[in-house]
């Protein structure tokens, strides 16, 4: 469709990241006339600066670890070194292949794709470079960018964000990672695999603090074993430049010197100066507020993805974007159960979960109504073959459904698919126990955990 002044689109989308492009693809599929406005690259953070490139780095790191550890499997390997240019070539190849595919997909759905910086000019229009795009509905999907702390300047050289870390041309000799959340531990893990001496600084008492405490403790144990250092429970107080890098100080008086500091303290919404306030959109600390159908207080405006205060995950953006498109196309939609969204941290070992933590379950149902079961991966043949340690923890409401699945171990992210069916279909342990799981797989560990919870443990003790 041409962007002449008389065109009124069904949906004008500002931002072509996971949330925005998912809404565009689904909307077009349902027959809506869609305009998608993106100032940088289609695919946004996830494809270019997030999920995909980090997982490529982590995979290269896994290969480095395997090369070092070949002798443990009777295979004669040594790690000669990391060729960072080669790692980037591999990573960029993955990204560019997916980018091309996505561009083709958007073109094939007859979406009007607009390159340029957009600004909301009214409740039903977005301006880009002097051109107005009118829509019966507007979707705000401008995403997020790395945050810092007050007084901590990210200079892109010695004090860097994840954006810089992804294009670093060398393996740093040493690094302090500020923030022990998902992004921080993933970089710490990849760098350690490449040979960096890493220290993570986390103000809260545990790494990956949003996870079940049991998972955090298992990850901490595994990181300790890998020689990844971390300091928990004390806040950052300052950083100064040294001759060779940085010196990071904490409120408890500890200091750490390293070649660089990666700031991974979270991501803030991109909403300043984009006309949102002027259009009357309700916001809180930069996040756009929405109801459970992703609608803002302005009836013609919706918002999705990292811009709204829900889980900052690409698949959450996809789901929210699709929900908006379906609602606008007149389909029946149901709100997203955010507890039912799978979460994976792709460090070595991986942390994967769905549902609620043991602590949250106790808060909701009362301590006496919550049952937990831990299945140690030491009893799982496939995990033993891979030489990975870890655990699956189930949280059940007594005599009821499984409300939380928490897993730690290499490749356990691949098991979260079944775990999410168990949670979202409110499965009883006995129902899962009835399903036959393939042997020897890591997936079998989920089956075994449910056998045990149903009172008939096979490869675990009563
Ligand atoms: C290092 C890292 C690793 C991650 N790993 C994972 C992972 O493994 N799994 C996972 O699920 N999630 C992961 N995430 C999170 C995931 O990337 C985000 O949740 C997701 O990208 C959010 O999508 P979005 O569409 O809301 O925003 P974004 O992807 O940020 O897209 C917003 C888009 O809007 C554009 N834009 C902004 N302002 C304007 C404007 N004025 N005009 C035009 N365009 C504009 C931007 O250029 C951008 O392309 C990771 C994030 C990071 C940083």
Automatic annotation (TrEMBL):
Domain Pyridine nucleotide-disulphide oxidoreductase dimerisation: 341-449
Top-level enzyme category: oxidoreductase
Protein family according to the UniProt entry: Belongs to the class-I pyridine nucleotide-disulfide oxidoreductase family.
The entry's keywords: Cytoplasm, Disulfide bond, FAD, Flavoprotein, NAD, Oxidoreductase, Redox-active center
Compartment list: Cytoplasm
Ranges of residues in domain FAD/NAD(P)-binding: 9-321
EC id: 1.8.1.4
Alphabetized NCBIfam families for the sequence: lipoamide_DH
Chain's gene name: lpdA
Cofactor names: FAD
Cofactor info, note text: Binds 1 FAD per subunit.
Catalytic activity as recorded in UniProt: N(6)-[(R)-dihydrolipoyl]-L-lysyl-[protein] + NAD(+) = N(6)-[(R)-lipoyl]-L-lysyl-[protein] + NADH + H(+)
Organism of derivation: Streptomyces meridianus
Protein name: Dihydrolipoyl dehydrogenase
Gene Ontology molecular function terms on file: dihydrolipoyl dehydrogenase (NADH) activity
